[in-house]
Amino acid sequence: GCCTTASQSSRKEMGNKLPNPRGFRSKSREGSRRNSEANSPTPPAPRMDPPPGMDSNEVTTLWHLFNTIAVNGVISRTAFAEQCDFLNSQMMERAFVAFDGDRDGVIGFEEFLVGMNFLNSKAPPSIKIPFLFRAYDWDGDGALSRADITAMLGANALENGLVLTEAQVAEVVRYTFEDLNPRDPESISYAEFERMVEAKPRLVSPSAINASKSFGKILVLGATLGGGGGGTAQAGQGS
């Protein structure tokens, strides 16, 4: 098909034009800090109402999973990357930003719950839409510009081994804007994105960011823990 006939040079050129993600922390330092806490007992799970689509057993399971990855109560970029199987750093960065709801550079437990709920087939779209919007909002300005969507489509294509020309990506972006017809012809607001997803629910499936494959290590860890979290993990794998 058209996606497989473009040259390798076009693929390389597109990859070079994507925004560079922020740098990762030192793996050796991160690893030594995590090892120093390996024998520390897991603190009790926080008292909280389960988010929509989860039950209290799943929250407890994910709390234990979170604490196998976190250092000092948060997950860094490096620790997150070690648990994922993304093929390129751009998609890994977009996934991290989507998890990191307050953009403070680390993932807390409540943010981790939201991210894992994106992989959960039982979670409603109202939980998944903000997560996916953050992934697409490349520059973090609260709106999806043509450049944001172009960058995300290019990164997603590279992640999935697709070779797309700039013209092909531009055509997808043009169609998206024409189909949605946003108030601002150059950007899509959150409310407009929400309406688009309501009309096309498949947009918030885990496959939208290749999650079932790329979060493989996290899903396997979740499935091996007791307390019902395996259901959430299996939901992600089956998407």
From TrEMBL:
<keyword id="KW-0677">Repeat</keyword>
<feature type="domain" description="EF-hand">
    <location>
        <begin position="87"/>
        <end position="122"/>
    </location>
</feature>
<feature type="domain" description="EF-hand">
    <location>
        <begin position="124"/>
        <end position="159"/>
    </location>
</feature>
<dbReference type="InterPro" id="IPR045198">
    <property type="entry name" value="CNBL1-10"/>
</dbReference>
<protein>
    <recommendedName>
        <fullName>EF-hand domain-containing protein</fullName>
    </recommendedName>
</protein>
<dbReference type="GO" id="GO:0019722">
    <property type="term" value="P:calcium-mediated signaling"/>
</dbReference>
<feature type="compositionally biased region" description="Basic and acidic residues">
    <location>
        <begin position="27"/>
        <end position="36"/>
    </location>
</feature>
<dbReference type="InterPro" id="IPR002048">
    <property type="entry name" value="EF_hand_dom"/>
</dbReference>
<feature type="region of interest" description="Disordered">
    <location>
        <begin position="1"/>
        <end position="56"/>
    </location>
</feature>
<dbReference type="InterPro" id="IPR011992">
    <property type="entry name" value="EF-hand-dom_pair"/>
</dbReference>
<dbReference type="GO" id="GO:0005509">
    <property type="term" value="F:calcium ion binding"/>
</dbReference>
<dbReference type="Pfam" id="PF13833">
    <property type="entry name" value="EF-hand_8"/>
</dbReference>
<dbReference type="InterPro" id="IPR018247">
    <property type="entry name" value="EF_Hand_1_Ca_BS"/>
</dbReference>
<dbReference type="GO" id="GO:0019900">
    <property type="term" value="F:kinase binding"/>
</dbReference>
<feature type="compositionally biased region" description="Pro residues">
    <location>
        <begin position="41"/>
        <end position="53"/>
    </location>
</feature>
<keyword id="KW-0106">Calcium</keyword>
